[in-house]
Specification:
Blueprint lengths: L2 H45 L1 H10 L7 H13 L7 E5 L4 E5 L13 H16 L3 E4 L10 E5 L3 H68 L6 H27 L7 E3 L1 H13 L2 H4 L3 E7 L6 E3 L1 H18 L5 E10 L2 E8 L8 H4 L15 H12 L3 E8 L3 E9 L2
Parallel strand pairs: 6-8
Antiparallel strand pairs: 1-2, 1-4, 3-4, 5-7, 8-9, 9-11, 10-11
Helix pairs in contact: 1-5, 5-6, 7-9, 9-11
């Protein structure tokens, strides 16, 4: 994938996320307004009973029986609108009639024990909420003849839910906003990362081509030199270094590109990475030995061999750097378990605190005096994003050592 296409794709993704956040915010606001209007309309319907009764009472002929009128109005206008539970009790709060409760309207004594308990519990809950009306003959009469217990109407339930609905919408909006910002920032980091890798590969290209050309020129003029054997050896070493630089440039060029996996032996790749450092250990330290224990010699796995080798080299280089001031061994173990291949790289170096286990994979985080702290960040990108695997610090103790674990799916 070319960097220009990657930038365009990332830009489109950023625009999509911004549009999604804006439209999502508008949608949440519209839903909240709709819900509020529904509640307000329900309140209006409930309140409408009072002016409706007043208008009929004012327009009532003088010869109409008032008690009959009120009773009829209650039965025809008020009762059908009631959507909340009502329980009528005697003065001792024993139920004898109820509405909008899923219990047969039989005599209370004829109900099942379970049904009686339900009504009694409802009376207790309503009483605890002061949702009851004592019935008296007159206001001045102290004697209570019965009680009317009532629950919350649908409108009241909706009103009680409004603060929670509002908080839930705000919380959802904040979470979506945070996720959007995180995703946009991650996309921007990816663009910077891939752009840096591509530019590094490009910058390597020109001097490498020039070096290769000069080596060819030196080869052609070697016949006239007296110390041709020494020069030949020097040129061979130069060729090796140029090939090494070319491989590094090729690796950087693969970052952000489409991976082309091959069926390879991970055992052989690990062995090559170990041999690469074993040849250089005498110049780095005379006290470090790399031990390799493999149980995957005959197993083939699909991956990009160059990038996986690069990852292993980064881990081995970190282990060697952690042991420069001490004796010890670096242990590499490879085995297979449940359709996954595991590689453990253990050193006896300076170790790290547990709080650094995840931080160590972030770009720019390093304990070395030199370097940008990109090695382990590259390793994680290669293993997790390109190969759908996992890499982590399995265990570490300050002054004792560290174990890194790589897990690759056996596809």
């Amino acid at each position: 994938m070319k960097s220009g296409k990657l930038q365009k794709k990332a830009s489109n993704k950023s625009l999509f996320l911004k549009g999604y956040l804006i439209s999502g915010s508008v949608l949440l606001l519209v839903l909240f307004i709709i819900f509020t209007n529904i509640v307000v309309n329900n309140v209006k319907k409930d309140v409408q009973i009072v002016p409706d009764l007043y208008s009929k009472f004012v327009g009532m002929p003088s010869d109409v029986n008032l008690e009959h009128f009120l009773f009829q109005y209650f039965m025809e206008e008020i009762l059908p609108r009631i959507d909340y539970p009502i329980i009528l009790t005697d003065s001792l709060k024993a139920p004898f009639s109820w509405e909008n409760i899923d219990i047969p309207k039989n005599n209370f004594d004829q109900l099942e024990t379970r049904q009686q308990d339900i009504l009694r519990n409802m009376v207790r809950r309503m009483e605890s909420k002061h949702s009851m009306i004592p019935l008296k003959i007159s206001k001045d009469d102290d004697k209570i003849y019965s009680y009317v217990f009532y629950g919350d109407s649908q409108t009241m339930k909706q009103l009680k839910m409004m603060p929670y609905v509002g908080m839930a919408l705000i919380f959802l909006y904040v979470i979506l906003g945070m996720y959007g910002v995180y995703t946009i920032k991650k996309t921007e980091r990816d663009i910077l990362w891939v752009g840096l890798a591509k530019e590094t590969a490009h910058q390597f290209g020109t001097p490498l081509s020039s070096l290769s050309g000069w080596i060819d020129v030196l080869h052609s003029k070697m016949g006239n030199c007296k110390n041709s054997e020494d020069l030949q050896e020097m040129l061979d070493f130069m060729n090796i270094d140029v090939e090494r630089l070319s491989k590094i440039a090729s690796r950087f060029g693969k970052v952000g590109s489409v991976m082309k996996f091959q069926s390879c032996s991970l055992h052989d790749i690990i062995q090559e990475a170990i041999e690469h450092f074993e040849r250089r250990l005498p110049s780095i330290s005379n006290k470090i030995e790399i031990k390799f224990e493999s149980k995957i010699k005959s197993k083939k796995t699909n991956f990009d061999p160059d990038l996986i080798k690069w990852t292993l080299e980064n881990l081995l280089k970190n282990s060697i750097d952690a042991m420069k001031q001490r004796d010890g061994n670096i242990s590499v173990k490879a085995f297979s378990h449940k359709n996954k291949t595991y590689v453990h790289v253990t050193d006896e170096g300076i170790g790290m605190q547990k709080k650094m286990f995840k931080k160590i994979f972030r770009p720019g985080v390093t304990s070395k005096e030199r370097g940008w702290g990109l090695g382990l960040s590259l390793a994680r990108r290669i293993v997790e994003e390109y190969h759908n695997g996992k890499i982590k610090v399995m265990e570490s103790e300050v002054g004792v050592g560290t174990t890194f674990e790589i897990v690759l799916p056996e596809v």
